[in-house]
Amino acid sequence: MRTLLFTVSSSENGMTALDFLRSHGFSRRAINALKVSGGLTRGGEILRTVDRVYTGDILKAVFDDVEKSDILPNHTLHAPVIFENEDYVIFDKPPKMPTHPSLHHYNDTLANLFAALYPQLMFRPLNRLDLGTSGLCVCAKNKPAAFGIKLVKTYFAAVNGEITESGSICEPIGRISDSIIKREVRPDGKFAETLYRPILVKNGRTLLEITLKTGRTHQIRVHMAYIGFPLIGDEMYGGDCSELDRQALHCGKVSFSDMLTGEKVSAESKLPYDIERLFR
């Protein structure tokens, strides 16, 4: 259960409860959850979203999270915690650790680590990194914290060849017909846009800073391979695996606004050694 208290200011006098909640960053889903549960009250009485609030009113918003996790805890796993508060935890996921349990990965994932650290909580990752991708993974500790969050993510990727100018790739991505996981650029795919900027060119390689306008499966890997620069170590999409046995992709920065408190949260993770050494 998560409880929030708000005192109505003079500048908010006469607002509807709906407008008040919106002004404090509540998403439509969070507001609907309060309406359904009757979790928004004033002076112990349920407050409807159409009711008006007045200076000095104390509003209480209670979110009841009754979901339980069935993920097995694994206390032997480790991933550094970069940031933590009452609503979120940000892990620095190592490469080759899956985010979710799946076939052949029942007990060695970030979800199993989360279950060990927070046995009473449901695992709610707000961004999901591929098995071979390292870096920051943001998890909500409760259901309302996951409502309406907009993550701003920055990735770093290494490719063979020299890219000297920034650019964008705007090509639709869809699943290859005979594959469960592999994607490709195809006319009937979903719109996808990737922005890239070279930040280091050395040893015949380029380190790119990448941001996404959309979030398709394998988007960076597919788009970079499409323009002739597959990620180093990315065997699935044609990358050179002679010096790296996983895709050279790292989520190095994340930022967002805490939906429940309005706090601005940001975190960074330095480039891991196996990618950094490619440019020594």
Explain what the structure shows.
This protein has 280 residues and is an alpha+beta fold. Among the domains are: 2-63, Structural Genomics Hypothetical 15.5 Kd Protein In mrcA-pckA Intergenic Region, Chain A (Roll); 152-251, Pseudouridine synthase (2-Layer Sandwich). It has 5 helices and 16 strands. The strands form 3 sheets. Strands 5, 6, 7, 8, 9, 10, 13, 14, 15 and 16 form a 10-stranded mixed beta sheet that branches. It has a 4-stranded antiparallel beta sheet with strand order 1-4-2-3. The protein has a two-stranded antiparallel ribbon with strand order 11-12.
Largest sheet: 10 strands, mixed
Q: Which homologous superfamily in CATH is the superfamily of the domain at 152-251? A: Pseudouridine synthase
Broad CATH class of the domain at 152-251: Alpha Beta
Tally the beta strands. Answer: 16
How many helices in DSSP terms?
A: 5
- What name does the CATH topology of the domain at 152-251 carry? Pseudouridine synthase
Helix content, binned percent = 10-25%
Give the H and E element order. EHHEEEEEHEEEEEEEEHEEH
Terminal CA distance reads: 50 Å
Using only C-alpha atoms, the radius of gyration works out to 22 Å
Mean pLDDT: 93
Name the poorly predicted regions.
none
Specify the structural class: alpha+beta
Strand content: 25-35%
Which term fits the overall shape?
Answer: elongated
